[in-house]
Queue: 4 jobs
Job 1
Amino acid sequence: MNSTTRTIRTGALGLCSALLLVLGAAEVRGEGDSAADATAEVSEVMHRVLEISGTRDLDAADRRARVEQLAMDRFAWTTMSRLVLARNWRKLTDIQQTEFVDAFQQHLAMVYGRRLGRIGDETIEVSQGRVASNGDVTVRTTVHGGEADGVVIAYRLRDTDGQWKVIDVIIEGVSLVSNFRAQMKEIVNNSGTDSLIAKLRGKSEDKASD
């Protein structure tokens, strides 16, 4: 498989909102090449997000809400939660697992949704995805222009019930999942899972009231 790249102008889309560009990855197209399918979806969804950021009759709150909904729909939240909590996931009751997934997705979706308003004039170069041995696909993107010139953002996607969904975001080599895992492990060890869930909910409530 030959490596290909494509470049898409983000217009009013800033770097932090670029973290969401992969969120709308849609159904896998039949039996085609997984890497090509995932890469095409990343490019296609960039245009979808740009439609939100470029719709001037929407106020900032409406744009954030639409991006948050993309995050809700397109991250593999349970998979991400299991990866983030690692061994601690198995120690949770069914109720705690459900509560953690809900608190985690609310927090992360809100964080990214609120960053959509950052204005920039970047372009995003999308490189052909690479397939891992377990079937996951990592799609590498590079920001050109603006304050984030040269920043590399990679998205790890997994085929989940016929859809490509995000299970990790790697910014300049730093994994979102690994970063959260270290933070949450410390909280769970020191204060317990219920405290972690409460902290995530508290952060979401604080942001919602800003």
Job 2
Amino acid sequence: MDIIPAIDLLGGNCVRLYQGDYQQAEIFSDNPAQMALRFEQDGATRLHIVDLDGAKAGKIVNLGAIESILKKVTIPVQVGGGIRTAQSVEQLIKIGVARVILGTVAVENPQLVQELAQGHPERIVVGIDARNGKVSTRGWLKNTEISAVDLAKKMSALGVSAIIYTDIARDGTMQGPNINALKELSSQIEIPVIASGGVSCLGDLLSLLSLESLGVEGIIIGKAIYSGAVDLKEAVRAIGPGRWQDVPLDLGDTRLV
């Protein structure tokens, strides 16, 4: 199972939000690229980047910071946040992003998701962010009545390569992941699931490891690493090096192989 450090970008800084609240942003670094390199050196096999400004604006905002990270590390990088057009997806893939994460567009334009998944096999991931089991969109600012499980089933049928599931109520709280929600969602679809939100200690990672047989292939960790509650090197040793290297991707860039 992959341990995936998160770098959330807000105003070019590396931050963490509390339950998705932009007013509760804690800055951890003003040099995201250096932070990314540290994660790679500590054993991370891939990185998770979210453009928080982009999620609000509906377009890529922190492109410069993303490019600086890509130039600094050699491990694959997945990027999400405000990516709602084919042009944005193409732009990110062109600069070397391994996987592009779609969120709002999965609800508002599923046909586009299908077209992108078919055009870029294994490169399109859908992020499902939920409050009380219901999907939130537009940077977690808009709530819907759509079931996270139902959306995951729909996206799986459209050919996306994986689902990233975030429990917003747990995100940035270090209260532990929502094991029951992850178990329900992963048991309903055939594609892999990546867990996000709430990890507070190594014990949480080990509990998530029990879901690997259901298709949970990775764990995104943010605040727990930044706060020192989880040591990334120790976590990678305990959980394993992950399976990213088993995914056949033609990235068109030998830096990312």
Job 3
Amino acid sequence: MDQEEFQIIGETPDLLVVDKPAGLLVHPSKPDGTRTLWDGLRELLCYEIANAGQVSLINRLDRETSGLVLVAKHPSAARQAAIAMQEGKITKTYLALLCGHPSEKFFSVDAPIVRQGEVGPTRIHLKRMVHPCGAKAKTHFRVLQNIENALGRFAMVEAQPVTGRTHQIRIHASHIGHPVLGDKIYGPSEDYYLEFIRTGWTPALEERLLIRRHALQSAGLKIMWKGEPLEWKIGWAEDLKFFMKDVEIDS
């Protein structure tokens, strides 16, 4: 993987923040030789690794989710960052395009999440769902702007997960009836995901989902580090801006 496949957003002696593009795996999941963000970071930080450093990914993003990933460059930083994450001292902000227009500008979803296979049958092993038996999960949403154009009705939203459950924002958005645009699992039908696994991306799927990946971006990270606040922000990914065409975006 070339370094150009991810962009360095910020760096300190302890930490590195990169912008991961959609489609790039964060960490190897199969021994098939697929290049990942982790591989690229090991090459980028080869000097640090040779001098007792390491590559530790503090927050993980789904393959289709783009945006900011926080990386610790040595074991001590990894421990401190992991503790901060565990204690909820790292604030994460996401941008997303939701289908339809939510009725409120500010709202929270407080709904527990469980792996679907633990409470009933499922055709998708990794799928989660809202269920009373699940782990506590809460997400704050803020509608930045409702838009409507030839492609449909969408809401540009900012989402802040209070907890860190797998697929949390996508599940909570779907739970309130406004799934993330392009979501193959939690969108209009999980059949789209199963079809995608069988056939790959096709014109038929594009016609129904409109976008190759789910419209979710990790856009902000904030951490108190050695007594100093550190913060990194990015805007909308270019493929998501496509859905805002012909719309005057509020500042």
Job 4
Amino acid sequence: MKLNFKKIAFTIFVTGVMTLGAFAQFEGAIEFEKNVGNVHVKYRYYVKGDHIRIEEIASDGTVEGIKLIDMSNGSTYAISPEQKLYMEAPNRRSAEDFEVEVKKTGKTKTIEGKKCKEIIVTSKDKDRKIVYWVTKGDYDFFLPMLKSLNRKENQSLFYQKIDGMEGYFPMLSREYILSSGRLVSELKTTSVKEQENKDEIFEIPDGYRKFER
């Protein structure tokens, strides 16, 4: 039997590209702001594989709090740089289920150089509407991260109700009271930077003590 080496080589090449694409994952740093009323908080994500570091940044630029997430085993640690303490975050109970209506409007716009599309999620039970502007990329960490954090905030809960969001990341989201139209919270991404992150930033620093209740 005569072998077609060109066909075999092409098949190997295509398979390799598809494999790399399947395992592609964003590595870098993402900064965003959270605004709720008069409260303004800045956050920074560092992402590398299954590891995520979330920093809460004070107005003077210092890091007030850190969370380390290992999505391979579901562990989450909270760290206090000021007190040099750490503790394992407990798994909280799941939130009560609720119905939502999801509308993918087809509208697009560019935010921080990223092409985004609009998705509107509403819940009559909660009297809330959230408008998301999401961008498609290698952001497969985001949904598992939300599940690991298990936050009860509407911005997180509503996002997880949208089907087919693997690989997407929200560049901007605004939460409104459905009945009045009043804006109650906003999350805005200010920087997305691809970079290599050192492994040690995803580890509990040496010399930190475990917080005992």
